[in-house]
Amino acid sequence: MSTESKALLKSFDNDGLPVFGLNRLRKRYRRLFADMINSGELRLEKVTACPCGNARFVNISNKDRFGLPFHTKICAGCGLICTDPRLSEGSMERYYREVYYPLVLGIPPGAAAGNIVSETQGEVIFSLTAPFVDMAKGPLRVLEIGCAGGENLKRLSEMMGQRGAACILYGTEYEEYNAVLAGEKGVNLIRGGIEEACTQGMKFDIVILSHVLEHIPDLNAFLARVRESLDEQGVLFVEVPGVNNTEMLSGGWYMNYVDYTVHSHVYNFNLASLRHILELNGFELAIGDEFVRAVFRVSGKESAAPDCSSNCESVLHYLENVLPENNHRPGSIYGLLRRRLKRAYYGKLRFHADY
Length: 355
Fold this sequence. Notes:
- By secondary structure, the chain is α/β, with parallel strands linked by helices.
- The protein has two domains: 10-111 and 309-346, no CATH class; 121-298, Vaccinia Virus protein VP39 (Rossmann fold).
- 35% of the residues lie in helices and 19% in strands.
- The strands form three sheets. It has a seven-stranded mixed sheet, with helices on both faces.
- It starts with 23 loop residues before the first helix and ends in a 9-residue tail after the last helix.
């Protein structure tokens, strides 16, 4: 069993409490998730090295937003934040089929996911990828990994059509109800993930990873398959929730850093760490920001990615000094009593299975 290291800040310690109030659905699936881990139905694994190859980490936090004992630690080599322990590759399909939507997204089983990110996500993807796509090539083959209900692909295709570029849409999806919805929108459904997409034997002009890459345990193997599926002149769109996005972490989407962390995010990126990992896997950055939204192309260069070791210090400085007002809350007798009541209500869940 993993031992708990000191957190970067006291508010990052594991007190077993969610950082926001959970409704009955989320509370029930929080308990179910822990029970599935402790029974061995879902397996955890310890993280011993970063995808960049470095094995030295600095511990940041000791719980996720649901008060579950998933730690985050930052790679001293490139600044990529890793969740430890993490769900094993073999447990992913069942987790996303049975637990993820009700617990993390708060969507009841069998309900439509709709626009998981935003209603304008398809337009965002179009605006960033269109400048790098050859519109005159003919029908563009577009693949979205984890396409949910197909809204992103549908809107992207509509906007490409307005520029005279027809699209043939493909999407991978595990969750059954979302797969049906995507099929109704004209998406050629591939049940599964990138492995199944590669078996189609075609090259894609656009590959979309919208809030997907942070969920992938083996980044290097996954990105190798993405590169294999991408046309040499094609583009890769990547969006992940950026840890250096001050607007996101200051009351925009999340209340604080621990609210930002969630067990399903195996990795947490800023633009520098994302670029580093992608460059190690044969891509080059075309455009990107700290949101993080970025477009990559296949690189023709064989040289190693540049040094990224200063990124670790940069991220740690950001967490310790840029967001202190969100990470420190004054104590009081009322506050302590409230926390004790919350702890009794939720229960401090532990993982008993070895990993």
